[in-house]
Amino acid sequence: QVQLVESGGGLVQPGGSLRLSCAASGFTLDDYSIGWFRQAPGKEREGVLCINSKDGGVYSADFVKGRFTISTDNAKNTVYLQMNGLKPEDTAIYYCAADPFGGAYATQYNYWGQGTQVTVSS
Question: Which of 86, 1, 90 is nearest to 37 (CA)?
Fold first, then answer.
């Protein structure tokens, strides 16, 4: 059974950093596309960074602008989202998602974690 568990969210000041973790079980990271998405109150869920399992390509949302990076630790079957230079507009619930055929869009993913809250505020 595919399971995803996020952790690492919290309250951070503008300009600060956070590293989110997504512990995966029930599948091997190499076989699935992995995506980080976020949803702010009143807004649609949007892609942040996604790794395509087919070609290894990485989708990066425009607002990332080099501030965030996605990485995987296959030995731990864990995906990370390193976020630097955080801004108040980055405040949202962050989700990781997995799917063998996932791409840049939330509708392409069938498996989701429960989400972790990130709040950027002084």
Answer: 90
